[in-house]
Records
---
Amino acid sequence: MESSCDETAVAIYASDRGLLAHRVYTQADLHEIWGGVVPELASRDHVRRVTPMIRQVLADAGLAVPPRAGPGPGPGGRGPGGAPRSPVDGVAYTAGPGLVGALLVGAAVARGLAYAWGVPAVGVHHLEGHLLAPLLEVDPPAFPYLALLVSGGHTMLVDVEGLGRYRVLGESLDDAAGEAFDKTAKLLGLAYPGGAKLARLAESGREGRFEFPRPMLDRPGLDFSFSGLKTAALVAIAGSERENGRPLDEQGRADLARGFELAVVDTLVAKTVRALDAGAGRYRSVVVAGGVGANRRLRERLAAAARARGVEVHYPRPEFCTDNAAMIAFAGHARLAAGETTDLRVLARARWPIEELAPPGATPSQ
């Protein structure tokens, strides 16, 4: 189960058959009027959506919801009075990071189900789900790989050595790339969520009219910064309006979107290439995860740069780039299979550095 922000999602994964079913409900229409996610509204909508969605996904997977539960020997076993037991072996849920109220809804429901069904539960780190999402595909990358995690809340380069073995090589010092996309889209009058809309607008834009800086490429290291790029877009819009005596027309908005998108993409690709070169042959694969990973221009330019270095680029399918429960089910399955469980606490952490994760059985850092 995934409920870290404004998507309610449920999925079922089987070790022998792969992903059996998954559904995602997005609250974008609910939050559009406010121009961004309202945490309290997000939490309330999760409460409304989650239980019906659980029933729908179980039905999609051909699994029955037991009329009552009790102790018994595994899925399909029998509880007191012959009532069928849990339809699943375990329950995984997003425990953080995210909006704490939204996390609590998913965590409480998931932990309650696990207790009622008599199966183990495990709280999953949201970013671990993203980092492992490409492993759901037919041709998964092999460890170790370099991951570019780029979304509305995070932009980072991560060395992925295995389950729970993650080392952050660089990250955004301020706004994430997806956040910068959304905020610049708002400056252009695009409705929330605006990042994908800005990318579509950029398709009809012309290169060269608006030139933006490529932040932090003039200094060593793998960290990112996008807040100044967003400010540069604001200054460019205001400057154009002063010069022409009117707001940007549709072509002008498209031109600005194109220039902004190119600046973000060039920065992401350059830092990823820098990490590959610094790895000195360690990586045979680059994984791109998170919502911005669906950006067409990013995919094209990163593929070309990686191909020149003999490196393959892997992406989750588009519906698994954004928040989803399939990646949580996969990560949870991996940890449950390794013997890890979460106790009866309802675990929800708004902030949770990924460096605190550890492989199953190891002691996490604090």
---
Amino acid sequence: MQRETRIANFVLGALAALSLLLLSLPLSTPVRSFKAGAGYLLDPLAYHGEAGYRRLAGAPDRIRRLLEADIENESLQAELRRGQWLATTVSALSLENERLRRELALKAPAGRSPAWAHVMERDPIHWYRSLVVDVGSDRGVELNDPVLGPHEGQLVAVGRVVDVRPNTSTVLLLTDELSAAAAYLSSGTLEGLIQGQDGPRLRMNYLNAEALLSEGDAVYTSPTSATFPPNVLIGRVARVNARDPFLTFQSVEVAPAADASSLQELMILRSRPLAGEESR
């Protein structure tokens, strides 16, 4: 312990002696160079701006040029980083603008007043059950309003409104196990019932037991649907289930056209527009 104390005292004394020596030495070129270099290493920010120029003015020419070059290099690197960030931001905004432009060109089914909404929240545990959007009773949204989403230049069925608040609404997705909708297959216009499985796929039940079913067939909302307008795409048949001899119908698995994980904007089909929107 005493040995460490003696070493610490010796180092402190040596540094103090060196400081006094430097202070007492005349401001010769080597001393000024050492002071400028040491000061820049210890506190480089002090050499930026107007005060930094005054500090550099007293340094030897070669040291001053070296320090100025380093300061300029840091400034250019910071400018480059800002430029890269701006380029990334512009690119992201351009993509967002193009996506929104395509969505605004989509037309709502006749007889309905559309209200676009942004997805605010997803349940991380129950991904395929519901979404919260930023449109509510303030925009005329009501319970059981059908909800559509954009997919490859068209609107597809997503779900229905099950909870309405002043500025937000909860959308129950078709993939939720509590969801069901009347639907038909494009091949032979076979009617059935689309039901959620609380997963990435839907199940279509009650199809004619004698019908020939094929993967890839499109599934649309039926004119008999109590929620959705007719002929809205729901998805495509992903698998034809094996026939159960104890059932009088067939079933298929359906891959939804709208992926719950990629939904960002939704169109809520209101039964009537708010006052003042009719003239727009």
---
Amino acid sequence: MSEKKVYILLTDTGTLFTRLIKLCTKKPYNHASIAFDSELSEVYSFGRKTARNPFIGGFVKEDVKRGLFKRADCAIYSIKVTEIDLQKMQSYLTEIEAQKKYYRYNFLGLFGVLFNKPLRRKKAFFCSQFVASILNECSSVDFEKPLSLIAPNDLQSIGSLQFEYEGKLTSYQTNNVEKSGTTNFPTLLSFTCYAVKK
């Protein structure tokens, strides 16, 4: 059975909200995303719905070439999955996207992470919880704690994860364009994390 790669994108956009989160987490990246291609062409996440207000959040489609991502630092990892697992992950995402008006950003869940108390809420995610939920559809990915306690840095501890890149997100995109000889960006999917998209 053929294997496919799925990409996990961790970012730090450097905003005030991000800096406040980092005071609590002591970690360099506070936002998590997941992608189905190395070009990060489409990104889906749970994060801020408007650039100016980090407190209005939910399921969003992000453009990693614009807005807050233009100055973001990032770390990118990949994981190999089977075709069947990939279909399960994409199907789960499609389900959520189809009902996105009913989903909310899980602000209360962030406090649960800080105090190590899982707070499960129906139709609500924060970014890394969302990414973990998508990955949980894959038979080869297991988490040692509840998905509602998964922080972005926890995703880095997945055993089968492979490191791909760390640095400025814009530099990663430029290098990909040069390698492929095209400016078309295929499909990525992201999940905005901790701190509703900063």
---
Amino acid sequence: MSNAEHYFTIDRTASAEFKDRGSRFLAYVAPVTTVESCKMQLQELKKEHPKAVHHCFAYRLGTDGLQFRVNDDGEPSGSAGRPILGQIDSRGLTNTQVVVVRYFGGTLLGVPGLINAYKSATSMALQLIPVIQKPIELSYQLQFDYTRMNEVMMIVKQYGCSVQSQETQLFCMLNIGIPKARLDEVLYRLNDLHTVAVNRVA
């Protein structure tokens, strides 16, 4: 596991168009967190552009950025997905997918031309979105009597933890993400509330 405390991503969509010798390359950038959300974005674009000849894409997922995929969708190997991923990586982004939809213009561009087109379309779309920095979080489950709710929520807010899910009856169960950089402080504060059970979630 890397000792980084933050990762870089995007929080909105964007699109841009690059043209070369009659071919149109439409790049669509989207924030994604799961392979499922990547597939959904791709399916939507295939529905939106049924006449396009190629729907090439690349994504990188996870706060460690270790999960990625490239797809040339029928273009010559290495001419589409790789250049798209290269642009995502040159900005140091993760949880990001770019799909480039190509409408063929009748003239073959050759592999160097294709690499340039997919790279340019992706770069243009990515330039439209600000890169945001997010804390890497570790997931913990807290269990406590509801009378402790205010104290627990105060700590959660104070240290910028995210609430991933909660069940509140007489006994509360809260799944939270604790920023890696603040982990020791948060655990110390929570353990101070003796009746709160704190467990790491794998």
